[in-house]
Amino acid sequence: MTTPVLMSGSETNATMAFVMPANLKSNQVPKPNDSGLLVKEIAAGQFAVFRFRGGRNTQNEQAALLKLKDWMKLQQLNQQSPPIYGYFNPPWIPGFFRHNEVMIRVQPQ
Description:
The chain is an alpha+beta fold.
């Protein structure tokens, strides 16, 4: 598995994505065995990112998102996408050691 694992959407309509090496083009990525899985490239862009610790739960995600949005407001950055959460550690790592990020695509300055 690659890191980070990217999560977006809601609890009832969540999306999970895996980051592939930059030198690997989308047509070189192994084809999924499940027709419900897609391989797609996400366009490069500018993102505001906030790093946070803890397990994957709504409380941690919402607190981090609020801090990121407050900072974006101070910087006068315009949100261009819903938030994406990046998780870097396996589930057996204690929460206080976990490295997570919330990121939002912003309008280029």
